[in-house]
Queue: 3 jobs
Job 1
Amino acid sequence: MSTGSNLERVLKSGVFAVTSECGPPRGADPEAVKKKGAFLKGYVDAVNVTDNQTSVVRMSSLSASLILKEMGFDPVMQMVCRDRNRIAIQSDILGAAALGISNLLCLSGDHQSFGDHPSAKNVFDIDSIQLIRTVKRMRDEGKFISGEEVKGRPDIFIGCAENPFADPFEIRAMRLAKKAAAGAQFVQTQCVFNVEKFGKWMEMVRDLGVHEKMYILAGITPLKSIGMARYMKTSVPGMDVPEEMIDRLKSASEGKAADEGIRICVELIEKVRAIKGVAGIHIMAIEWEQKVRDIVEAAGLYPRPAINRL
Amino acid sequence: MIVANRKPFEEIMDMLKPYAKILLLGCNECVTVCSAGGAKEVSVLASEIRLSRAKDGIPVEVKEHTLERQCDPEYATEAKPLVDECDAVLSMACGCGVQSVAEAYRSKYVIPAVNTTFMGSSEEQGVWKERCQGCGNCILDRTLGICPVSRCAKSIFNGPCGGSQGGMCEIDKELPCAWQLIVDRLKEMDMMEKYLEIQPVKDWSTSRDGGPRKRIREDLRI
Amino acid sequence: MKVPCTGRVDIILILKAIENGADGVYLVGCLEGDCHFLTGNLKARKRVEYAKQLLDESGIGGGRVEMYNLSAAEGQRFAEAAREMTEKIRALGPNPAKQQGPRGQGAKRTALEPSNP
């Protein structure tokens, strides 16, 4: 049984998938979304729309997803558990499906203390795994959490995220298995810099047979500068940036650190592509969306397949 | 026990501005155990209030008294002779005690001197940490004695989230990740297969979300 | 009031002394590591730090309470500490809670009077 999702079609066809993301603006101007989208058009199979990322208020992922859909994209609407209770969540799932948004990424969400409204109440009525189960139940059984009937089932390809670099390391593959059991069909990982550790995680994942239950897309982020690399290494939770990567950026000549960053990025793509079970990549080029096309081309992933709906 | 912190001194003095005769009421139970509002803390705060007012040349009379607890009407009403003489009652009890005293003395202005924060346990002398949120449906059997509601910043039931690092929570490097603790305990007890069980959604109607709660024992009512 | 060790000095004693008009209070305890009662002087130091905070917030000034550590044999150092403390308090001026004229009743109570009426 398939949904209307282009991403699902690409993954099912066996082509190495490419997704990227658009962070909505801190204001009501739709042009900001369209501008970012324009950089990605034709270079991705689907585009993620973040949901008040880092607990900072932005245009909602539902509305920004619709703007991108109208541009011809297949949006992956991200949904966190931090801000909405199960009533609002199920309501938004129905809304997304009604607007033709075919992919949903189910996330816990960064704690509100990281964002611009740390005094807010945090909701966390359900967690990300319960959210995955909720979407699946609404879609496949036509039932809400309460057990009552959903009149008009949402047609959604269910995704989740996982961080191979978070602790405790030994349960990270088990947690992904749990998500697969709950109904997740694809996963986008936190960005990979430490390929060796990622490889170990993939091994544990394969041992549990999870790569056959869901499509795994490796997260990729190009490093713009030494400052960015250092920041990610020290200030972003769950990030593993090997020192040698920072060294490479340091040794690049004046003003050429960004180019070296792109080179490192393309090398990472080639390395993860060679790992068994990796079905695609998810490029997170935050505030550097214009580089996505260079990366996709250099990695030999352009053009993207146009797999038609029946 | 219920844990509280004394309010900032400036805030207390601000609330006391209009009053000259103050009754400072302590409580012998939870706030004594967490050293926030027992007899000792009452004498210290009373002394500070007198010093502060003396410095500003504004007269004040602070009477000190500690009740066995303030959350039972029988104990709260004990203080009547002292309450009658004062202009305002400054209570160092938790929010429960302050409210019982306010109810017992409806014509008196009752002020809270502490911020009631959480239900917790003592980890070592002088250190108290949050342990229970009163969700009304205890699942500590499933998580081997570690509560995900109160000790996980996101109250996750199928944790940990992606922010757990080095056994610590993403919001505070000194806050242990509850799910790391649970996984460690599962390993110690050789019960790792329990980790794969998907915990169902929580019924929050038994917690504060369902509305103010009560407990009644009919056999004990007079 | 005699105490066997600075560890027996409760915070309330320091505050009461100030309430009763003392311009300053200093504790003189054994050298750290040499306490006759093992950790009394360490506890005293923590309490002095806390008392400083309380005196700061109530507007009296935490500089009016200090702790010195020396051995019973250091007569010279004892005299030095006394001089130092006196100079310090002289520079700070009289206790701002000492009133000329009408005083609130509470300020008249001494440290040893029972506080429950």
Job 2
Amino acid sequence: MIKNTHETIKVLIADDEVEFSSTLQTRLNLRNFQATVANSGEEALRAVEEEQPDVLLLDLKMPDLDGLEVLARLKEEYADIKVIILTGHGSFEVGREGMELGAFDYIMKPVDLNLLIAKIEEANASG
Amino acid sequence: MNNHPTLADRILPSSLKSSIDLGLDRRNYGHFRLILFVIMLAITAVPAITIAMLGYSNYKDLLQKDEHIQLKWQLDGSVRAIEQMVDSLESVVQFAARRDRYTELTTDSNLRELFERLHRQYPFFADLGVIDQGGIQQAYYGPYDLQGTDYSDESWFKAVYDQGLHISRVYKGYRNVPHFAIAVSNYDPKTRQTWVLRATIDARTLQRFVDTIKTNASDDLFLVDDEGVLQTQSDYYGNVLGRSGVEVREGLWSDPSPEEETVLYGIGNINATPWSLVIMKKGYITQDDWRSFRSRLLLIFFICMGLSVLTIYLLVGLLTSLIRKADEIQIGMMQEAEHTDKLASIGRLAAGVAHEINNPLAIINQKTGLIDDLLQISADFDQRETIRLNLKSIDASIERCKAITHRLLGFARRTDVLYEELNINDIIREVLQFLENAMLYSRIKLELQLSDDLPPIYSDRIQLQQIFLNVINNAIDAIGKDGAITIITNPIAGEVRVVVQDNGVGIAEELLPHIFEPFFTTKETGKGTGLGLSITYGLIKKLGGDITVRSNVGKGTAFTITLPINSEKK
């Protein structure tokens, strides 16, 4: 059975792969998350402003704004938002850079949903 | 690239270029060596030969000049001596033919008395004759009966009549003995006519005199008349009255004789006679000091050249081997750089592929997850379990792909990078704990030679664990069952070196360059991804270290890993 054991966490999924983000959105919502989707970097920045999510799942490679740039801008204005980098375009160096920019964690696609949820909860709980 | 031919391209023949070319192709060292040898030899030999030739020709000139001067002196002296002798003979005859003696000498036996007086003093006088103005011999004393002979048409008579003196060529006269004649003319005031006294003289006188002035300084010395007929005996051309073959030309000149010896001729006219003095001398080439000079010059030259050739030979050999060594080192370095480059670009390619595959893989993963979610919340229906089983199978495949892509990226679930002070020995022991069971199962003996003097290194624990896990796992796989693994650590030149060796099957030499390439594996399909060593290589490079391999088929393989003391600074 799908577990619904936690309080509602607002999650924003920023990813240009619509098939990926929408599916993940549906699945997270099934698990009592309040998930929304942004399909580009700019959109993600707007969505953050409007929806004030608790956790941002951030892809690195997006057409308009690179994930690392989004991260850098977010940290200026929304320092308390938890960002988990979730990308297929990862490497050791980029991961380290993301962590230095204040990301909570770095996860490579494809990821097991339970593991992702655990990370989201961990990030949310980290205050 | 600039394809214009350079100056060197135009000048040098292509065979030479191939050995001078600094490209990656191996040069022809034999060829190179030969060219170098020839060039260096030419540089040495040309000045040496030039100097030797200059010395040779200068000395030759000097000798020739010296020789000419000597010959000139000799010729002048000899000509003067003969002229003096002729003068004295002439004055004897002139004395006997005092102007007023014509009547005296043509009467009674006065001519005979004169002859006998003369003959006592000068035994070489053969006869005497008195000839009147008309050319008739009026008185004669000698072995022939020549009284009354008419000489009026003879050329010598005309000559003596005009010039007062005539000396004849040598001719065969009395008893076939060569003679010559001296005739003087005088005007007798009593008879008021010009008369002539003619004396015939044995030519041996001439010979004896020539013999006295002949010295060792010349090879031959003789008299010839204006037609080249010998007037005295010649060592070369034979006896008196033979033809000498000498061109009667006054002065000094040389004539190469058939034996390739230069013969010098010195020829001088004897005044008031038809004779010329010929001095023959062999050229300097036959002379001793010239020969010794030449042989000394040759000896010195050949010794010098021999030494040069030897020195150049050794030098060129040394130079060629040095260049060869340098080339080998260069080529080795280039090949290594090329290999490293290749691995790096394969790594980039693999990472690129992995990145591109990760995204669609993530979508598939999410889709199967969603389907599974939907199955869970919907009511039971036919084939529901079958669908779930198939989803599980898809998930398993996704996991496999994910393992590959994540390993390709060398990034298995890493979240942070942490540099800390570590002891390599401890890390190896930790890794071995994971592998204890596998080794026990495969009956592999482990030998640890871990140095106690190992300095702590500043590096990443997890990555080091991964490195050693991969390498030792690789050794276990190489052995199969029953064998031994030796792990040695030691400090070396400010770094830490770890050797992991096994006595397994070994790796064929032609495969060695490929073992760090991704997806290269000798294990059977499905057993290995061919990524272990590639990832290990990438991790070690990332930490600033190095890994090398040595292997013998059937004997085993040894991996040597070198790690810097401080990886962060690398």
Job 3
Amino acid sequence: MAGLERPRAGRIVLGQEVWFDAQRKRHVSPERRRVGYLPQDYALFPHLTVAGNVRFAARRDRPDLLERVGIGHLASARPSQLSGGERQRAALARALAREPRVLLLDEPFGALDAITRQQVRDQLADLLSTLKLPALVVTHSFQDALVLGARLGVLDRGRLVQLDTAAELLRRPATAEVAALTGANVLAGTATPNPAGSTIRLSAGGELVSAQPASGPVQIAVQPWQLELCDPSSAALTDRVVSVRHDHDRMLVRLTQLSVLVRAESNGRWPIAEGEVLGLRAAPGDVRVLPSQDGR
Amino acid sequence: MTSTTHGGRALASRLALLGPALIMIAATIAVALVMAFLLLPVVALFTYQPVHDLIHNFGTRVATDAILVSLKTNTIAFAIMIGLGTPVAYVIGRRRFPGRSVVITIVELPLVMPPAVAGLGLLVAFGRFGLLGQTLTVLGIDLAFTEAAVVLAILFVASPFYLRGAIAAFEAVDSTVLDVAGTLGAGPLRRMLRVAVPLARAGLGAAAALAFARGVGEFGATILFAGSIQGTTQTLPLAVYSLFDANLDQAIAIGVLLIIVSAAILLASKLVGSWTSSRSTSPSLGEPSSYVQP
């Protein structure tokens, strides 16, 4: 979209402007498009100060932009003297100085460590919402996409498999890959229809009930926080604990087939330790039968 | 049998202890010999005559003429080399085009060509009866044995040094930074001048210094194509050669002058190299800003 690569086919249009049309052999060069492009490592000009970087794009000084992104005090600094989060903001100010029609951010947090990442992500989300500028963010982290994005498009092996809000992606994943991306457990099994929907016998053992009618070989998705612990001796689905990770008030328990998120208050009832067998169940409405390859 | 092996083992262990020490001594001697070999001619030139005579010889007519010729021709050649060579190196360095490796090989050709052969080639190409000669004569241009010939000779032998280094320096510039400059509205010229050249300046400076030094010292091509006419085409190296038989003292004085110039170029390129520290844009993981308000 920045015009740095030429696609083999298709069209890229912004409003009324055709930026690329493979059929009509039209390709507008990057310098004539008005994009604000932030590559993964920000690509600030190392031989210029922060103010100089912004001046390169704006052809005049823009201290207001630096203030807006919160680095007005760093105008005379060189990129090498800045922290990761500050560099991102400098690159953003520079991109905005171009007065772009669209922002393109490539893995905006890829170059940051985990702690800075969260902070910067929240700040960026706030900033983007005040800008009223369409922004396209590329990320491999579903978490980042959740915080930043109104609509999420999932690309799998070059194809757009789903374009939806985050809530819809969670509720109705279009493919197993989308489900896995959102953090769901994706399990294979065989479904048998019943009056309430279907019973799925999992290939790795155990049973789950889904509210969707289905039959034959299926894949189902269920989120880790949608699984509940129950008595292993009478549960339709059991599994053995492989590892436990604590996170504030909850635990992410990894079992051999799937993961379950357990809130701390339910910890007392069933022992959760490596090697223990846990009983699991889920509400039928939470067990999604994924559309099969041919779209049934 | 046992006693000889005992003695043998003791000797072996003593040699093992001496081993590293021996290597150190041998290495030091080798380095000292190489240093001596390289420095001796220089020292010999500087100490050949008393300083008073040396300075007097700097001021002779032959010397001052040669200084002026060298200064003028090298400055012009250097300006052309940087002015034309930099954009050419940028294009070759950044674009992929069919025949690119052939072009680069041609650029490097004068590097391996004997300078005298280069001079001969220039004569045959641009001389009065050469390949281009007759066309030039018609236009009223007579190149051989003129100041212009000196400039051409210097350009021919020295510019490959600059071009090769400049191409490598431009190749090494981060593509992403140039791409981003494009998205920020900079056209090809602005990208080259305001982004690529500043980013490549260390490599460009080193290549320019090397080329300049080569140009100043150029002898073989100049003498064959431009001749050694005092005041017009006799550069400092040519003056050394022409004075060699008649007045060794003066020849040596000019040699000393050339060494001083070469040393100055070397020093300048080292200083420029240390000023241009590398400043990468790749962020380090979340460390606090090191920037302090001035």
